């Protein structure tokens, strides 16, 4: 894909994501249906489905040869990243959306033959749109963002949810050594915050490709590091663990976690 096509694809993804944001605001003004999925932490609404449908219709109409992998399953069953693939989370942070009416995002990651092209994460209620065009830069709304500066863990804010702390006590050491822990309940937003330097790392034990695809493109463009807990690159084809961080904080975190492993 040439540079002009990549730029056009990025511009289109940003435009549609803004439209999706307006659509969500309209839907929020009315009642919508909420269902539980796998367990009580896991909700889905009519709005999640209609936003995914919106992207599916737009992509199919404009780029019939592109494929879509979306959380709500309205796209294709995608088992490889050949050609152009849109990885879509129509609403990331559905529990926040339902309970708080804020702190949720639309997340889009576009890949071509496995390489990132564009990432868009839109915090609809705060009107913050984080976007990246691979190799060309990273923006918060119209403002270009710099690459991340080096930070020590002592001056870093980290983000993970409390359930993970109960599951893996090694995280206690990160609580001790960092400046503080935050937990926002929306993976795509937390990755966007790593990319713009509001927090230095985001950790999760179980995320799907649509949770991480948009944020991955942002963090990569910011010069941060993203992998699973084993240090392997994400495949965007299955659920996985995630360590997404400012590059040198990433190294410090892996040293702390590996050091704890050796003590056990
Ligand atoms: P979602 O809102 O799109 O489902 C919550 O801590 C974060 O984890 C959200 O980004 C949420 O995305 C994601 N997540 C991934 N799998 C989940 C699950 N099974 N239940 C709840 N949240 C999940
Ligand atoms: Ca969900
Ligand atoms: Ca999600
Ligand atoms: Ca979702």
From TrEMBL:
Pfam family, one: Inositol_P
Key words, A-Z: Hydrolase, Magnesium, Metal-binding
Molecular functions (GO terms): inositol monophosphate 1-phosphatase activity; metal ion binding
Keyword match ATP-binding: no
Cross-referenced Gene3D superfamilies: 3.40.190.80, Fructose-1,6-Bisphosphatase, subunit A, domain 1 (3.30.540.10)
Keyword Magnesium listed: yes
One GO process term, biological-process aspect: signal transduction
The protein's name in its UniProt record: inositol-phosphate phosphatase
Organism: Alteribacter lacisalsi
